[in-house]
Amino acid sequence: MPTLSPSERSVRRRHLLGFWIVAAVFAATMAFATVPAPLYVLYERADGFGPFVVTLVFAAYALGVVVSLFLAGHVSDRFGRRRTIAPAVALNALSALVFMVWPAVPGLLVARFLSGLGIGMITATATAHLTELHGMARPGAGGRRAEVVATAANIGGLGLGPLVSGFLAEYAPAPLYTPYVVFAFVLVVGILLVVTVPETVGPDDSSWDYRPQRIAVPAAERGRFLGAALLAFVGFSMFGFFTSLAPQFVSGQLGIHSFVVAGALSFSVFAASAVTQMFSASLRLSVQQSGGLILLAAGLVLVIASILVASLALLVVGGVVAGAGIGVAFKFALGAVVRIAPRETRGEALAGLFLGGYIGMSLPVMFLGIVLQVAPLALSALLFGAVMLAILAVTAVVAFRTGLARSG
User: Fold this and answer.
1) Spelled out in words, what is the top-level CATH class assigned to the domain 1-199?
2) Could you tell me which of 261, 247, 87 has the C-alpha nearest to residue 163?
3) Domain 214-408 is classified in which CATH homologous superfamily?
4) Can you tell me the distance from the alpha carbon of 283 to that of 41, in angstroms, rounded to the nearest whole number?
5) Per-residue pLDDT of the chain (408 residues; tens, 9 = 90+)
6) Do the Cβ atoms of 62 and 240 come closer than 8 Å?
7) pTM beyond 0.70, yes or no
């Protein structure tokens, strides 16, 4: 092994420190995205709105993510990782300010949309920055650590948000302000730290014509891509349920008014997803495909059953099973898109996959919110479950018929 000069060691240390700074800021920003989950009950009491408005507020976030993915998700390739991450974090800090000063429904919609814009900017950018920083800090070490850390920061951060905000809402004063004050402070510190991290994208003096991100998949692979997008749709729909309507069910139907319980419920789903994403890569592709579908179906059935029998324990078990299914299915879908898309259009194909996921995060829970306006909870839950199981069945047929689990 060659001996490194002091300057080379210093450069590697700076990149390694930058790696962990970006990971921490990434996790904190993703955590902020789910901070409102256990707090919606308080907003409902204060403003007198119902589940449908909660789903609209949540949909504003998903819309922001989709818009940002298309308009700004790829600009870091031109302008640099730091110059994209810092504004993304700033948008979430601004969102926290809007939550504090405008706690009415219009303010919630604006705050969630701003947060979605920032999340759409940071997701791919921070993942790429972590990969590049790790490669420069540990040349030849492989990208496994960067992949694991990026997954933990992304999905783990989403899980930490409701856990922390639920704890603060339960034990700290001013539950509709304190969580946002805490996260606003953390995000501002994160911006100050990110600007010290080494840049990994060099200056490009060539002409660059901006265009929104496109979805590009070879015609022969569109069936397989559809299967992958449907997997993302179904998986993210469970994320949407557990970060929008599940806390209302716990409070309204089970009579459990603990914000810690509501936050822990959302955390358990994301934690199960993060863990299975990190450890399912060693499984055969066919096992990943079948296992993800089975776990998603089982988790969905358990969640619907928990609503019908009003059982918190069953809801937690169903959430963990569904979370595990999301982790396996999304990891598999992500790998499938990487395999079927040419390198030069891979980013655009991945944008399409995330589009399917974020549409799934909003539309099914909006459907459930609408049904709840005209039907009792039990009937609404059964209808929601039936629709989602039908989509799962279609997904399974498309995935198996198109050979989504083929390695090449």
Assistant:
1) mainly alpha
2) 261
3) MFS general substrate transporter like domains (1.20.1250.20)
4) 40
5) 457 677 778 888 899 999 999 999 999 999 999 999 999 999 988 888 888 899 899 889 989 998 998 888 778 878 889 999 999 999 999 999 999 999 999 999 999 999 999 999 998 888 889 988 998 888 877 666 887 888 889 888 999 999 999 999 999 999 999 999 999 999 999 999 999 999 988 766 556 677 787 777 777 888 899 999 999 999 999 998 998 888 888 888 888 889 999 999 999 999 999 899 878 878 898 999 999 999 999 999 999 999 999 999 999 999 999 999 999 998 888 888 878 877 666 667 777 888 888 888 888 988 888 898 888 888 999 999 999 999 999 999 999 998 888 755
6) yes
7) yes
From the number of C-beta atoms within 10 Å of its C-beta (0-12, 13-18, 19+), residue 263 rates as: buried
CA distance 24 to 391: 36
Judged by DSSP in three states, 345 sits in helix
